[in-house]
């Protein structure tokens, strides 16, 4: 029997995540028949290389998806809103990196180590979670399975690249300006379209995305509701309490998180038991030896697919409660690798097909 091969398109191919989608796809187990690179008109004509072959970036149109089996999308919310349904209408399955489809009830929100089963019965679009949510649930899931989970309080230390390639470049320019005694110019952070911008170099910004009416940023809102949807199947689940604070830090790549969590009582949870569960978990690397000053660091996580966990310790004031420190490359596990990993599982499970009538579930 001849192995099936797949015609794949990368939407948003020239961005920081898009270029990493290409490299992760090169290293994946997916048998690629053809690859089409799609972006805005501004980027059309650029040349990129995939498996030694030079490819030309094309401007994305609705008809770009004719004959495509799989779309790996990282073009932003408005782009995914426009093109994902068009791709599905033409028979392509879309794995989308933007935030647009994540809370849609017809779209599974998937981290393969946590809820791969949600891929079954998809309607043609699968959403990739927020980068900070992804690494947190990878670390929490083995703990939930072993000891239950009642409460999560997270504080994030998120890299500049989480706001895109231009934010990363601005951080570098600001650092160079500061070191030269020149004025730092800020045009992007904390939110590109806001009235005020602040430098990230030599600074911390306790705002990621816009503020909601309740005082939380939308990034914090996403972490709360995405965690519930991924781990408990309902974005408003009462099975776990989740809250957090999201902070942008002057690190190019690699998000850090302090995660405080409460396990179910009478489950025998201990730091050693949690460490054992983490050490055996798929996609997790435990780096936790205080005596040797061994703990995860963004500089060491960059370029790696795994989620790194350390500093596991009990809350000495509250029973069944613990702390841990979680680090991952936000552009890989937080975006490109998780997307390709979802695509690999779709291929392995023979789920690269759009069910009859599925396109009607999305506005086209």
Compact overview of the structure:
The chain is built from nine helices and 14 strands. The protein is of the alpha/beta class and 364 residues long.
State the low-pLDDT regions, or none: none
Helix fraction, binned, reads: 25-40%
Helix and strand composition category: alpha/beta
- What is the average of the pLDDT values? 97
Q: Helical region count?
A: 9
Describe this structure in words.
- The mean pLDDT is 97.
- The protein is an alpha/beta fold and 364 residues long.
- The strands form three sheets. The protein has a six-stranded parallel β-sheet with strand order 5-2-1-6-7-8, with helices on both faces.
- The longest helix is centred in the middle third of the chain and has 17 residues, at 131-147.
- Helix content is 29%, strand content 21%.
- It has helices spanning 16-26, 77-89, 112-115, 131-147, 165-179, 218-232, 271-279, 298-301, 332-348; strands spanning 6-11, 32-39, 47-50, 53-56, 58-59, 70-73, 93-96, 125-127, 151-158, 241-248, 255-262, 284-286, 307-314, 321-328.
- Helix 1 (16-26) packs across helix 9.
């Amino acid at each position: 029997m001849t192995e099936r091969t797949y015609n794949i398109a990368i939407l948003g191919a020239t961005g920081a995540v898009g270029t990493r989608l290409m490299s992760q796809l090169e290293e994946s187990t997916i048998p690629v028949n053809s690859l089409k690179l799609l972006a805005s008109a501004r980027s059309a004509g650029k040349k990129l290389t995939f498996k030694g072959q030079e490819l030309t970036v094309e401007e994305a149109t609705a008809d770009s998806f004719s004959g495509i089996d799989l779309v790996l999308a990282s073009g932003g919310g408005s782009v995914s809103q426009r093109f994902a349904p068009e791709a599905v209408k033409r028979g392509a399955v879309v794995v989308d990196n933007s935030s647009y489809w994540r809370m849609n009830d017809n779209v599974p929100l998937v981290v393969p180590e946590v809820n791969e089963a949600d891929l079954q019965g998809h309607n043609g679009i699968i959403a990739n979670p927020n980068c900070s949510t992804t690494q947190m649930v990878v670390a929490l899931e083995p703990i939930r399975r072993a000891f239950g989970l009642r409460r999560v309080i997270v504080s994030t230390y998120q890299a500049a690249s989480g706001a895109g390639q231009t934010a990363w470049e601005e951080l570098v320019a600001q650092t160079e300006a500061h070191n030269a005694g020149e004025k730092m110019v800020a045009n992007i952070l904390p939110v590109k379209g806001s009235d005020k911008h602040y430098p990230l170099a030599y600074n911390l910004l306790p705002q990621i995305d816009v503020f909601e009416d309740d005082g939380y940023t939308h990034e914090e809102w996403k972490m709360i509701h995405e965690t519930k949807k991924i781990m408990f199947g309902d974005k408003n689940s009462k099975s776990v309490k989740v809250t957090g604070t999201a902070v942008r830090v002057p690190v190019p790549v690699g998000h850090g998180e302090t995660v405080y969590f409460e396990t179910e009582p009478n489950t025998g949870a201990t730091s050693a038991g949690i460490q054992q569960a983490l050490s055996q978990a798929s996609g997790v690397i435990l780096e936790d030896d205080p005596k040797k000053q061994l703990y995860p660091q963004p500089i060491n996580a960059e370029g790696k697919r795994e989620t790194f966990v350390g500093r596991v310790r009990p809350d000495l004031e509250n029973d069944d409660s613990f702390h841990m420190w979680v680090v991952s490359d936000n552009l890989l596990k937080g975006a490109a690798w998780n997307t390709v990993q979802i695509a690999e599982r779709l291929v392995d499970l023979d789920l690269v097909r759009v069910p009859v009538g599925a396109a009607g579930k999305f506005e086209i």
